[in-house]
Each structure stands twice: as C-alpha cells, then as structure tokens.
Write a structure and sequence with these properties.
It is built from 16 helices and no strands. It is mostly helical.
Length: 370
C-alpha cells in the first residue's frame, strides 16, 4: 500500500516498506531479466516482499477503520472508498494505459482483457508471464479495501462484536489453510508446483490473505486491547529478534520446499506471523527498528507503489538495449542502470500523478478521523 505524504512518518514502517520493494525488485529481476542467479537467494525469496506489503496494508487499513469506528465522528464508508481509490487508482490507470496504448512497452507478452484489470479480477486463474501480471497483488489489496470495511461495519453492528471480530480472524486463517489443502490436492500434486500452483493458489485472493489478516489482527489488538498492546510493544527488541528469526526460518522453509503440501498449507500463516512480529517491532518505541532511520528508506517507501507498478516491465524493455551496448543483464553496470531508472521512473510517477491527487484528496475528502 502506498504511504501518504501527509501522514506521520514512522521510520520502522518505512524500513519494512522499503525492504518489501527491494525484495520484489530482486525477485522480478531474477525471473524476467537475469540470465542466471541475479541477487542469489534474495532473488529467489524476493516474492515474499509482496506478502510484507500485504501485512503492512492489513495493519494500516485496519487501524484506519478501527480508529474511526471508535471515534466520536464514526466511520464513513463512502469517505473511506473515495480516499482509497484516489490513492491507488490514478497511478494504476496511468501504467495500465502504457500497456494498452504503447505496444512496445508490453512487448510480446499476451495482454488480458481490459475489464479484468478494471474490475480487479485479473488475479483469478491468472496465467504466469502475461503482461502486467504483477498487478495480481494490487487486485488482492483492492478486493480487501472493498470488503474489509463492509465486514467491519457488519460485525460492529452485532452483539459481542469484539468476540465476533476475533472469531472472524481465526476463521480466516483456518479457511485459508483448508482451501490451500484442497486446491493443492486438486491442481498441484506435482514435485515442482507448476502452472496449477500459481493459477489456483499463489495468485488466488482466497489463498493469499494470511498476511492481510495478520495486519488487521494487529490493528484490532491495538485499538481494542490497549493494555495487551502496551505489553507487546514494550518488548520491542525481543519482538524484533523473534520476527527476524521467524522470517529467516520461513525463508529457509520456502526455499527448500516452496511447492510442497505442508509448506503450501501452513507456510503462509507462519510467514504472516513472522511479519506481524516485525510490524510490532516497527511500532515499538524501544526497538531498534523503530528508532533507527536507515538513509533512503523514507523515499523508497514513499515511492514504492509507483516503483512496483513500473519496474518489472521497464527492466524487461531495457534488457535488450543494454545487451546491444555490450552489458549483459547480470553485469554490474546493467543492474545499476536498471535499479537507478526504476527508482527514477517511480519517483516521476509519484511526483506527476500520485502527489497531485493526494493534494486534491487532502482538500476535498477529509479522513474518517477528522
């Protein structure tokens, strides 16, 4: 989820968001640009950057919703949707136009019907390798943005709503595991995953909401259990170590057996728990992750959404150009050029498109807590 230029900056969250876009870049570079093993195991495990984005989005969106529900002004669903769509859609539409109106940009990759992108259903039964395929994660997030506030309002209207909220969180994890178990048996069941794994599990919204739910659970804990939240965030460095250890373990597990049955069923909630611990550390004033501001991470975090949308196809387009100049995709000059241009074009999209819409939104669509 893109960060707001007007919201308070938390260096820990900026660091995690910057880490997420770096991981995603390395994975896409390895898969779509490199001739060999660019970035080593970081390139192989870099797909988890999307899951880290999901965890961040779940917490930030959940926190907005729950804080508004508890406020004197209440929660406005139309205002929430207006602010979300003004944040995410302008950048998305500009990049989508590049794919449809500039054939040289999309190259030889097949392009799905426009309605699948406009309805954010492109990720359903998605075939890997199609043009703008990485928009699948945006589809998952947009579906969450549409459904989560409506579900929150529905639960809030129930008696013992807090109990129902926690039951919904628990049920979400259980349903996700059951669905992945069934779909793995039905469509994967091969040693190395293959097309079925990606079409029916990896890209599917109903199989990939673990990290989003984990982030929402943290927001629920923060807003409705302040004593427990205070105890949890008082141990920031211990939480950081636990999160790093859990993340390292899950990286090893996924690198070892990414497509296996056990990893498919239980690996995603375990990864979600590890990222949730990192999020808690990022929100804990005593932790190093909260206190240490890593140079450049605030800017990367701010531009991460725009970079995410553009970087993959930009690098694919640049690859033959640099190759003709004598710089193979795994050479240091080529990698540096692609990194620099990915950041520069992300900054340009952020500055020219995202920022004006954010300013217009700030003037005309007040936040729910206002």
């Amino acid at each position: 989820m893109p960060s707001s230029p007007s919201s308070p900056r938390l260096s820990g969250l900026d660091t995690l968001r910057a880490l997420a876009i770096v991981l995603v870049f390395m994975n896409h570079y390895l898969l779509f640009v490199s001739d060999g093993g660019a970035f080593g195991f970081w390139g192989e495990i870099g797909w988890t950057g999307v899951d880290l984005f999901f965890a961040l989005s779940g917490y930030l969106i959940g926190n907005q919703i729950f804080a508004a529900l508890r406020s004197a002004h209440g929660f406005s669903l139309p205002r929430f949707y207006a602010r979300r769509f003004l944040r995410t859609l302008p950048n998305f539409y500009v990049v989508l136009a590049l794919y449809y109106l500039w054939p040289a940009f999309r190259g030889d990759s097949a392009l799905l019907p426009l309605w699948k992108f406009l309805t954010f259903t492109q990720n359903i039964n998605l075939t890997p390798g199609t043009a703008f395929s990485h928009a699948w994660s945006l589809c998952v997030e947009e579906q969450c943005y549409v459904l989560l506030p409506a579900v929150a309002l529905l639960i809030a209207a129930c008696r013992k709503s807090l109990l129902w909220a926690w039951l919904a969180v628990a049920a979400s994890f259980i349903v996700g595991m059951l669905l992945r178990a069934y779909l793995w048996e039905e469509y994967v069941h091969v040693p190395r995953g293959g097309l079925g794994y990606y079409r029916y599990i990896y890209y599917a919204s109903w199989c990939r909401f673990d990290e989003l739910v984990a982030g929402v659970a943290l927001a629920l804990l923060k807003n409705y259990h302040p004593a427990a939240w205070a105890r949890l965030t008082s141990q920031g460095n211990r939480t950081l170590l636990a999160g790093m250890a859990g993340t390292a373990l899950m990286f090893y597990v996924f690198l070892t057996d990414h497509y296996g049955y056990g990893v498919t069923v239980f690996g995603y909630p375990a990864l979600a728990a590890s990222f949730a611990l990192l999020l808690v550390a990022a929100l804990s004033p005593a932790s190093l992750l909260y206190r240490v501001r890593v140079p450049g991470t605030a800017s990367l975090a701010l531009w991460s959404y725009a970079i995410y949308l553009l970087h993959k196809q930009l690098c694919i387009v640049l690859r033959p150009v640099l190759q003709d100049l004598g710089y193979g995709p795994d050479s240091l000059p080529a990698m540096l050029v692609m990194i620099i241009l990915s950041i520069a074009t992300g900054w340009l999209l952020y500055s020219v498109v995202e920022t004006p819409f954010m300013r217009w939104r700030a003037r005309h669509v007040p936040a729910n807590h206002a």
